[in-house]
């Protein structure tokens, strides 16, 4: 805080990372800017920020997305479902995007019917989903500027504990900070809820390291727990490797590679070391035994113009695949299956996705006859 | 989106207020009042969230293309 000409509340201009350093602006020379101590401090912080700028660092993304390319993009576990599913999305406007969706599902854990409404533009996203049992999932994201984002997510259901998560992200030029609070309750004598703070910092233009701290005080009667996880990520353009060491004794290593322009492959290994109490027969008293469990998943994703194929092989014997195909601009099909020969289990899911329009303009856009600005596309089919 | 911004300007001071309450030892009566307040706020959010999102979307569509309630809620194409 060496520079006296900066308003303390103005955090952004205080940051040495914005490329605009407050010292550079001409300020009236007063006691706080002319005394040797603050001059020394400001010159030191200016040197540090200049050095940081010269390193050409990039934002490493948030901690949550440290192995996003593998676990969220290539692997199909997040998208897998069983039974039959039909989604009908109706779009009313493109800027901001305003969409309403009706989803029907049979024979799966998904609710039989759910209704979703989404409105989104560059700055904000508001979404609400309510299902046939009246449980609500709400989400609100708001970007204050291109670095700072706040998020609120809600889960309210009748007869079940509600969930509210507040999230705040700060993505600077070479690091990201994320703060999360789950069900925060400050009314009691002590804090109740879950707090997560994480930081990910770029060390070189490719390597970034990070740390996550979890403070768990969900149980009002028991003691609170705190845990620290460490993570590292190396992004070399066409391949990305990441490693996480979690506080509960888990190690997650993942590797992603772009094999060809339309083929990505991912590998993820999880090693979980846990200590479990076991009854030993000789002594008739529980002893602590260390168990090691490991699981490896290998997956690939092919992306074509109108289809996405995903395949996945797991070391516990699961073989899964998923096919998403867009038959027409407004009709998409999803098919996924999973079989485990060792456990003799299988899962199968089939879904259809329809896009409908709320007005004529959007319908022309969906059928590829006009572009985003309403100009006709040459060679488009006529109605 | 202006409506949203105003809403956020209310939420954040409220959160800050609740943080400053952390050190206070509230009496039983005020604790109960707070829990009543929270549970009614929860009910309002539970049934008001989706209508609010739909209203935000409806008000953001251009004047010539304002959908009516039936076309807003029905999955069938209205064009």
TrEMBL record, chain A:
**GO terms under cellular component:** mitochondrial outer membrane
UniProt entry tagged with the keyword Transmembrane: yes
Which GO biological process annotations does it have? Answer: protein import into mitochondrial matrix
Q: Where is this protein found?
A: Mitochondrion outer membrane
Q: Which Gene Ontology molecular function entries are recorded, alphabetically?
A: protein transmembrane transporter activity
Matching InterPro entries, A to Z? Porin_dom_sf (IPR023614), Porin_Euk/Tom40 (IPR027246), Tom40 (IPR037930)
List the protein's name.
Tom40 protein
Question: Topology in the membrane?
Answer: Multi-pass membrane protein
Entry keyword Mitochondrion: yes
Q: What is the lineage of its organism?
A: Eukaryota, Fungi, Dikarya, Ascomycota, Saccharomycotina
UniProt lists the family membership as follows:
Belongs to the Tom40 family.
Q: Which keywords, in A-to-Z order, does the entry hold? A: Membrane, Mitochondrion, Mitochondrion outer membrane, Protein transport, Transmembrane, Transmembrane beta strand, Transport
Gene3D superfamilies (UniProt xref): Porin
Q: Where is the signal peptide?
A: none
From TrEMBL, chain B:
Q: Where are the transmembrane segments?
A: 6-26, 38-58
Keywords, in A-Z order: Membrane, Mitochondrion, Mitochondrion outer membrane, Protein transport, Transmembrane, Transmembrane helix, Transport
Query: Which Gene Ontology BP annotations are present?
Result: protein import into mitochondrial matrix; protein insertion into mitochondrial outer membrane
What the entry lists under InterPro entries is as follows:
Tom7 (IPR012621)
Location of this chain's protein in the cell: Mitochondrion outer membrane
- How is it placed in the membrane, per its record? Single-pass membrane protein
Principal place where this protein is found? Answer: mitochondrion
Task: Quote the cellular component terms of the Gene Ontology held in the record.
Answer: mitochondrial outer membrane translocase complex
Pfam families with a match to the protein in the record: Tom7
Q: Where is the signal peptide?
A: none
Q: Does the keyword ATP-binding apply?
A: no
Report the sequence similarity comment from the record.
Belongs to the Tom7 family.
Record-given protein name: Tom7 protein
Provenance organism: Pichia kluyveri
């Amino acid at each position: 805080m060496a520079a006296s000409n900066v308003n303390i509340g103005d955090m952004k201009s205080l940051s040495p990372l914005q490329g605009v350093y407050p010292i550079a602006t001409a300020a009236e020379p007063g006691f706080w800017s002319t005394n040797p101590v603050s001059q020394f401090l400001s010159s030191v912080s200016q040197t540090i920020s200049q050095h940081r700028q010269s390193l050409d660092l990039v934002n490493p993304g948030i901690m949550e997305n440290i192995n996003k390319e593998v676990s969220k993009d290539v692997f199909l576990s997040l998208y897998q479902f069983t039974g039959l599913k039909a989604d009908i999305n109706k779009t009313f406007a493109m800027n901001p995007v305003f969409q309403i969706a009706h989803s029907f599902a049979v024979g799966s854990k998904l609710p039989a019917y759910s209704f979703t409404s989404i409105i989104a533009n560059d700055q904000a996203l508001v979404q609400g989903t309510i299902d046939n049992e009246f449980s609500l999932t709400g989400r609100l994201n708001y970007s204050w500027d291109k670095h700072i984002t706040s998020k609120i997510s809600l889960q309210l259901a009748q007869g079940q504990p509600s969930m509210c998560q507040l999230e705040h992200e700060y993505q600077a030029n070479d690091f990201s900070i994320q703060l999360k609070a789950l069900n925060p309750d400050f009314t009691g004598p002590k804090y109740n809820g879950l707090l997560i703070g994480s930081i990910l910092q770029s060390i070189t233009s490719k390597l970034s390291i990070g740390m996550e701290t979890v403070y768990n005080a969900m149980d009002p009667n028991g003691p609170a727990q705190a845990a620290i996880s460490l993570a590292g990520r190396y992004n070399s353009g066409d391949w990305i490797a990441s490693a996480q060491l979690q506080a509960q004794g888990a190690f997650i290593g993942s590797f992603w590679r772009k094999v060809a322009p339309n083929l990505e492959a991912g590998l993820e290994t999880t090693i979980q070391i846990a200590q479990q109490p076991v009854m030993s027969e000789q002594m008739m008293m529980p002893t602590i035994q260390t168990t090691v469990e490991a699981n490896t998943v290998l997956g690939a994703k092919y992306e074509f113009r109108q289809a996405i194929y995903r395949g996945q092989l797991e070391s516990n014997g699961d073989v899964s695949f998923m096919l998403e195909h867009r038959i027409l601009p407004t009709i998409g099909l999803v098919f996924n299956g999973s079989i485990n020969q060792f456990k003799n289990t299988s899962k199968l899911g089939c879904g259809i996705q329809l896009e409908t329009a709320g007005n004529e303009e959007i319908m022309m856009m969906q059928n590829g006859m006009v572009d985003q600005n309403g100009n006709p596309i040459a060679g488009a089919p006529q109605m | 989106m202006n409506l949203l911004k105003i809403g956020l300007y209310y939420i954040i001071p409220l959160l800050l207020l609740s943080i400053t309450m952390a050190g206070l030892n509230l009496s039983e009566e005020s604790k109960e009042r707070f829990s009543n307040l929270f549970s009614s706020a929860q009910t309002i959010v539970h049934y008001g969230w989706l209508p609010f999102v739909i209203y935000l979307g409806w008000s953001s569509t251009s004047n010539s293309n304002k959908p009516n309630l039936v076309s807003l809620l029905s999955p069938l194409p209205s064009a």
